């Protein structure tokens, strides 16, 4: 499903960037699953991961159930595979019409760098936790989000000097729309993960949402398209050579 709107929350210790759509649930007092120890599952056409029970969208979180974890992992593995193909396309053929379609006049090297950083971050998910259907984040219209932890170094007078992101304490959260999405076409579960990972790895923003608005942004302002999370999501989801 295509997810059309979203917003950013700024928090004292973290920044949460959201991909929005309807959601809602109640939470148990169970610790969320850390990403690093989860076995990776390759999605198989027609298998249990390819066809996700609708009930998974209604299971309360934030802890992911043993049924939800392989669904997330399958999307993660597919996102990694597709990002490798996307990096290859831009690296080997920077003038390809598909690059211009989604990023306009922006520098292909700029696009390549952001794709590479996103690919690298999803290839090594140490420090991330997965949250599923967290009612504290999956409120009205939120489809997925990332929580990015940062630290601030202060000078001798206690004034902020340097702010930087840290890997530990980062969260990828998925909400009911993630489990209702498919693994084919656009609006996929793995595309949702690419959108969110680009926020963490490449500091993308949310200038536009949805396929049509992202295409329009590329035509009107390539530089903004090159920093828009949904442009990377749809660029990868519609790769002509995959």
3D architecture notes:
- The longest helix has 25 residues.
- This protein is an alpha+beta fold and 242 residues long.
- Strands 1, 2, 3, 4, 5, 6 and 7 form a seven-stranded mixed β-sheet that branches.
- The chain has one domain: Collagenase (Catalytic Domain).
- A hairpin with a 5-residue loop joins strand 5 and strand 6.
- Helix 1 crosses helix 5 and helix 3 crosses helix 5.
Describe the structure concisely for a colleague:
The protein is of the alpha+beta class. It is 37% helix and 17% strand.
Number of domains: 1
- The chain-level structural class is alpha+beta
Helix coverage percent: 25-40%
Supply the CATH superfamily name.
Collagenase (Catalytic Domain)
- pLDDT averaged over residues: 78
Strand % is: 15-25%
Between the first and last Cα atoms, what is the distance in angstroms? 20 Å
CATH class: Alpha Beta
Q: Outline the biggest β-sheet.
A: 7 strands, mixed
Protein topology:
Elements (H helix, E strand, L loop, with lengths): L7 E3 L3 E7 L12 E2 L33 H25 L4 H7 L4 H16 L4 E5 L9 E13 L5 E6 L4 E5 L1 H5 L8 H14 L8 H10 L1 H4 L3 H9 L5
Parallel strand pairs: 4-7
Antiparallel strand pairs: 1-2, 2-5, 3-4, 5-6, 5-7
Distinctive features:
242 residues; alpha+beta; Collagenase (Catalytic Domain); metalloendopeptidase activity; MetalloPept_cat_dom_sf
